[in-house]
Amino acid sequence: MKSVLIIDDKENFRKLLKTYFNDKSYTIYEGKNSMEAINNLNNNIIDLIMLDLKLGSENGLELLSKIRSNHPLIPILLMTAYASIETAVEAMKRGASDYIQKPINFGELDIKIEKLFNFYKGEIHTLSIESVEYSDIIAESSEMKQILKMSDTVASGDTTVLLLGESGTGKELIAKYIHNRSKRAKDPFIAINCAAIPSELIESELFGAEKGSYTGASSRIIGKLELANRGTVFLDEIGDLSLSAQSKLLRAIENHTIRRIGGVNNIKLDLRVISATNKNILEMTDKQYFRKDLYYRISTYPISIPPLRDHKDDIPFLVEYYMNHYSKNLGIHPPEIKESAYIELETYSWPGNIRELKNIIERAIILNNKTISTFGLEIYKTEESNLKKRRQQEESRVIKDALNKSNMNRKKAAKILGISYRSLLYKIKQYKINYKTD
Prior knowledge:
The chain is of the alpha/beta class. It is built from 18 helices and 16 strands.
């Protein structure tokens, strides 16, 4: 349900507009002066402002400037019985989205409001980061059907969701799937990759910043949480947030408000939070790298997305989808895939998951062969084997160093390594590490 703030000093006119907006099921707030208007803005979530140019002894343009300085995204429709070109130009300079003459023509008002909301959605899209590329999710396997079933179950409410899984498993697509099936589907879906933004900039990305609040802030920055108002914010790789940012995010989620860096006013928010991580976040809370209170707040409904190697039944359908997609983009016919190529795909371990499969299919389409008998995965298997070997060698070296530092005391070595005693014994046996008896 949308909300409107009607700011006019004439009670009868406010009643007239209230009747109009009531018929359209708006939540209605009203103010007869700037004090009441600002109080409503500070304590409620407003989607549209109807502002009269003349407010008794007050000037509506001055209030317009004040509102716009703190609420840059709310559409403001200026109402005036004294319209002139000069007034319209001045109103637009001060941040009015449009203006309408009194007495109000309600047919014209319908058109103007629709245009304002369409423009507002366009602004949100422009300011948001890259949207999800594909809206459809391929789920022919029982594993992925279960994921969609869980997503459907949680979609209708505002429960926080934590998506767990390796990189490339499609966590953002699942987040978008949940959003599209929620009551917020027509409102913004704003995604932010917490791992891709430098730690010194993450807070301004999330909460926004006022002009001059820090070196380089040459203009006001609208944060992603504010952009997502009324909709869904997707916090990808939330495990990479600093403890300072975690603290502020927890406060924003609990209080439904944010304050831009350098700002003095709180901004009310109504949004849903979906988070994702490829890390063992419970282990991070034990090591105090991630706040437990924030973990409990964001993980009301956890969903673990399986790696591609655990739902290989989907591979033929994913291949067909991406083959058709990239062939269409290049204006060519999809190539024929031989049985040997499918066997190759199904026996590969897919460390990069669906993202890796997508890249391999795109490369095959670019080569423009009429038939594909191999995707050339042998080289990847060799690289994967070499990487695993190097990782095991490095792990063995670190264990040996810990044993030496602890004078071959395995329990002390386990503490140095930050792993359980049982895990250390397993690794010693696995790598055939020689040690003296404790």
